[in-house]
Amino acid sequence: MSSDQNPDLRMALLNPEDVEGDAAKALASPTGHMSLFRLMAHAPTTILPVMRLGRAILGKQQLDGRTRELAILIALRLEGGRYEWPQHVDIARSLGLSDAEIAAVERLDFAHGFTPRDRAVVDFTRQSVEDVRVDDATFATLRRHLDEREVVELVFAIGYYMMLARLTEAVELVSDPVDGRAVLQSSQSRS
Question: Which ranges in the chain belong to alpha helices (H)?
């Protein structure tokens, strides 16, 4: 078997020649070289659906990318998603989040520098991650800024990256070189 057997890894990262079927298709994709997908190949029946959902979140949602990335960064910060963090900082910058806004997310300091729409997304995301249930006032505030489709898409984005953070943190996956913009472009072109 040619999988990576680095003793610092809790689980081997699989290579295309180690797998068959859907896992092989996934690892042959433009992003299949990334450690996350090489790890996910251990679950051959779910890797392609999970990758498709990720591409849909990044490439097909009506929810604007800047809002999505703000929520993803908050979810990753709250969940300790170190593997995905640098990739999504790269994407967030490309979609207009400033370094000051990203630093505020990293500090979990939302007191200044965010629009009312951003604040609604911040509050909704924090409650979704920390409490699961969102209170009426927070939901009503978010609805002043997002339509029903965008609210559901926001929840999908938050939940997806919570799942990835749990996976990558459980196995202590080390970040790949930053290539977030390429992942975003691949998702948009393949969706």
Answer: 21-27, 35-40, 47-59, 65-79, 85-94, 99-107, 116-131, 136-143, 148-170, 180-190
Spatial distance between the Cα atoms of 22 and 54, rounded to a whole number of angstroms: 16
Residue 94 lies in a domain: yes
Within a domain: 97? yes
- pLDDT tens, position by position, 1-60: 455 556 677 899 999 999 999 999 999 998 889 999 999 999 999 999 999 999 999 999
Give the model confidence (pLDDT) of 84-113 as tens digits: 999 999 999 999 999 999 999 999 999 888
Handedness of CA 149, 56, 12, 177 (dihedral sign): negative
Beta carbons of 45 and 22 less than 8 angstroms apart: yes
Task: Please state, in angstroms and rounded to a whole number, the distance separating the CA atoms of residues 147 and 27.
Answer: 36
- Assign residue 152 the CATH number of its domain: 1.20.1290.10
The model's pTM: 0.91
Q: Which domain holds residue 158?
A: 63-190
Residues whose CB falls within 8 Å of the CB of residue 95, separated by 6 or more in sequence, listed in order: 65, 66, 69
